[in-house]
Amino acid sequence: MSTPFVGAVQFSSQIVGSSESSEGGTALLPEVAPPQRKQMPGWAVLLHNDDVSDFSLVTRSVVEFARLTVSDAVERTVEAHESGVALLMVTHRERAELIQEQFQTRGLTVTIEPAA
Hints:
By secondary structure, this protein is of the alpha+beta class. The protein has helices spanning 4-16, 55-66, 70-83, 93-104; strands at residues 43-48, 85-91, 110-114.
């Protein structure tokens, strides 16, 4: 009389096609490498200074659309104001396009380009 556990081992041996004897043998699965994930190319989201928009509007928009903290948003807004452009983030293309469109609804200039 066999126990349920032995029957389970015998059944699993048959599933994986083990050539070992089903009595007391343990089926071993072959080692399989995990699938490789391809990284999507990154897109840089760039905030441009326009000398027209209110500083607080720009900062609030950066917080809302780019999901940066208030302190990071202020830093990027100041950088764009002083140097003309600031990198907000690097993300996948679809998100970069969405963020660009969101800024445009407020009259703010954001461009996207392939990240270096």
